[in-house]
Design goal:
One of its GO terms (biological process) is negative regulation of translational elongation. It is a single chain. This protein has 118 residues and is an alpha+beta fold. The chain has a single domain (2-102), classed as Double Stranded RNA Binding Domain. The protein has two helices and four strands; from the N terminus they run βαβββα. It has helices spanning 14-30, 75-99, and strands at residues 2-8, 34-43, 53-61, 64-72. It has a four-stranded mixed β-sheet, covered by helices on one side. α1 (14-30) runs parallel beside α2 (75-99). 14% of the residues are buried.
């Protein structure tokens, strides 16, 4: 699994990098078939002061790419919200993959009656 953490108008400190890595352990615990993770942390110059910190993640799995973003006043709160959203989407994808959307033939009731030969 490749992990890329980058900052836009922000320098990514080792503390922020460790915080993101520790939070991503929860995702890897639920679903281990992750190929690539790209995290972008941004400080925007918006006129509204309460939504300046932005965290985005692009997670590639086999067969699907998940994109999640979160805005907050605090960068750590934005990361927490981002991981919560990502966790819900990964769990939803995992349940879809496991269910396969149909029942197996061996679990269907026996309604087939062979035709009588004349």
């Amino acid at each position: 699994m490749n992990l890329t953490i980058s900052g836009h108008h922000l320098e990514v400190t080792p503390a922020i990098r460790d915080y993101v890595q520790n939070k991503l352990e929860r995702i890897k615990r639920h679903f281990d078939q992750v190929i690539d993770i790209a995290v972008i942390l941004t400080v925007d110059n918006l006129t509204e002061k309460e939504k300046r910190q932005k965290a985005e993640i692009n997670l590639r799995m086999s067969g699907k790419t998940v994109y999640v973003e979160s805005l907050s006043q605090d960068l750590y709160a934005a990361i927490d919200t981002l991981i919560d959203k990502l966790d819900r989407q990964v769990m939803k994808y995992k349940s879809k993959v496991q269910e396969h959307g149909h029942d197996a033939i061996k679990h269907l009731p026996d309604t087939f009656e062979p035709a009588a030969t004349a």
